[in-house]
Amino acid sequence: MDARGKYALVAVPAPLQEPLTYAVPEALAGRLQAGMRVLVPLGRRRVTGVVVGFQRESPVAGVKEVSEALDDEVLFDRAFLDLCRWAADYYVASLGEMLATALPPLLRTESRVVAAFAADPESFHGDLDREVLDALRKRGPLTPAALGRLFPRRGVKSALDRLAAAGAVTLGERLRGHVREARRRKAARPERAAETAVPGAAPVLTREQQRVLGSMEARLRDGGFETLLLHGVTGSGKTEVYLQAMERVRSRGLQSLVLVPEIALTPQLLDRLEARFPGDVAVLHSRLTGAERWRQWWRIAQGLARVVVGARSAVFAPARALGLIVVDEEHDYSYKQEEGVRYHGRDLAVVRGRIVGCPVILGSATPSVESYHNARSGRYRMLELTERVEARPMPAVEIVDLKSRPGQAAGEKLFSEPLLRALRENHEQGLQSLIFLNRRGFASFLQCWACGFVVQCPRCSISLTYHLGRHSAFCHHCDFRQRKPDACPGCGNLSLSEVGAGTERVEHELRRLLPKARIGRMDRDTTGPRGAQERIFRSWEKGELDILVGTQMVAKGHDVGGVTLVGVILADSSLNLPDFRAVEKTFQIISQVAGRAGRALRPGRVIVQTLVPGHYCFGPARGHDYPAFFATETEFRRELGYPPFQHLVHLRIDGADGDKVARSARDLARDLRRREAREPVEILGPAPAPIARLRNRYRWQILLKGANRPALLAAARRAVALMPRGRAARIHVDVDPYNML
Ligand SMILES: [Zn+2]
Ligand SMILES: [Zn+2]
């Protein structure tokens, strides 16, 4: 039985610091390997865990036995486990929690039991189907036999088959059946589809693209870890560089992993990947059903797909022959996971490249300050594309000062004369215009002019956003909804004013100003139903819309030739956020949204409205001068001790009882200060969070700051250990935080 011992170390999805020890039963001896899933008893439950190692002796007597092996072969290779181990350590989580974050839901459920997904019972037609689903949701996972006892003589088995086919339940046994079936299919196919496919034609490269590809040639051929920052202005053809790099890696029989900010926002990239690598692309995203996700995982793990594309969590895709990782729009904030284990997809992509020994390309027109700093300091290699393809000019950016325009500063008029004039002219010439405002809804809040009362969410310390089309005010944090009150709840005054503007109001206003224009809107409110986002995008692409209004969704990398005008309604909305990245965010969004203009033959024009035209982010935005922005921004960061010069860990303490949460936060800060006195970690706070209450939970925060990362992480771990285990207050650790609201 080689190095394997009598005891298995099993990581289970629970907030424990170390994997648990289980005895390996006689029947499994010699069969079990690290990287296989097992079913193990934990308390009174049985849970799915992953074997991460073995030992000859048990540290304690009378350990429980592994109940069952769920895999016949290793599902996760050593590199995958190493990545999870690294991430668990860095993000102050247990290995089990990290694995639970990394694995698709289907792989986490218990075997030989049926678990319900969050499906709507109303969508199933048979009474029995609905009853079974309902029972599963109320009682939790059950075995088919137990379900049979609940619904005697009623054909539970075929109901389960129907539900499983619809992706509403997962069946342990079905899962394994699927694996066997996939394996048979693989064995039956003599040749991989990918090898017979003819790749789509590659366009002629610009001299800059050739130079960039040439400089990574050796790395792509010989492998080895290196991080390359591809800084290319919008429209400079970064995607073509990725595609050719992937082709080179693919010709060596290796896999490429491409991370994109949001899969639904990149239909054009998917089209190009499918055209270039037909039949060889696996796509991972959050809207896949459990069964479909599992199918994609299986294809990737077996090497049946050599191009893997997905959002943040795809950094955990089980590719075992990885030759290249690409992170497109590496600056994008959606790479940061904001729940559970708060990992950063881009940062883990770099770690994964180091573990497997392959190059990592980070691409962006507006790199994150951290990545650009790493490239400047030599940790990453800088590659630059400074010109647009076909020598198209960069768009002209104009800054319009709203202060000097009465009525506009107060938000009464959304469009300045220059922007309105440009919109009219553009429309008359049959060209497309893009209008951006990073806020949805009609009015930012409802306020009584008589007494100042603002309509607030009863569960959060947040004002409600008014949505005209739905005649209601909504909380954008917890989705609380209430009809617009007829009178002020504070003083009874009969009119509440609609203050501030969102995309819905912009659209409304545009329809009034340009009644003949075909206007569309893309934000979270219009893209709810499956496929809605792609529909809006496709009609924009086909020129069926003259004007598209939207939030940051419209800023991402799509390329529509007819767009010659971009308007930013109010740049200040992101500039004034209580966030040290607010200026970086604003510069990025202006550059990205401006980059949508003039991508075909006609030059583009960008009009940015603001109340602070003298702000240092506008000069570089106007001149398309990222290095100038970087120079000023890093001066401030250095002075204030923010990343990349010092690092942050954000600790949030929350709970239902405000007094208890405040007391816990104060106790924790005091205990931390006592222990960290001689260590190079600064402890800021405790203080109530900017959003002091969210979904009826009160929130406090402590910020740890320091240049010494190990000391900082040690302090974060100590904070978790110091926190009393109980229900009164919980601690959430966020290493390298992006959202501290
Ligand atoms: Zn009032
Ligand atoms: Zn709320």
What would you say this structure looks like, in words?
The chain is of the alpha/beta class. The chain folds into five domains: 7-108, PriA, 3(prime) DNA-binding domain (GIY-YIG endonuclease), CATH 3.40.1440; 114-188; 199-390, P-loop containing nucleotide triphosphate hydrolases (Rossmann fold, 3-Layer(aba) Sandwich), CATH 3.40.50; 392-442 and 501-637, Rossmann fold, CATH 3.40.50; 647-735, Ribosomal protein S10 (Alpha-Beta Plaits). 34% of the residues lie in helices and 21% in strands. It is built from 23 helices and 29 strands. The strands form seven sheets. Strands 10-11-9-12-13-8-14 form a seven-stranded parallel beta sheet, with helices on both faces. Strand 27 (682-694) and strand 28 form a beta hairpin. The longest helix is centred in the last third of the chain and has 19 residues, at 658-676. The chain is globular, with a radius of gyration of 27 Å. 45% of the residues are buried. Mean pLDDT is 85; it is low at 172-199. The protein binds zinc ion (2 copies). The site of one zinc ion has 8 residues, from loops.
Summary tags:
single chain, 741 residues, alpha/beta, GIY-YIG endonuclease, Rossmann fold, seven-stranded parallel beta sheet, six-stranded parallel beta sheet, 29 strands, 21% strand, binds zinc ion
Bound molecules: zinc ion
Helix content: 25-40%
Strand order of the biggest β-sheet: 10-11-9-12-13-8-14
The level 1 CATH classification of the largest domain is Alpha Beta
N- to C-terminal separation?
Answer: 53 Å
Taken together, the total number of domains comes to 5
- How many distinct beta strands? 29
Rg measurement, Å: 27 Å
CATH-derived architecture of the largest domain: 3-Layer(aba) Sandwich
By secondary-structure content and strand pairing, the structural class works out as alpha/beta
Major beta-sheet overview: 7 strands, parallel
Strand content: 15-25%
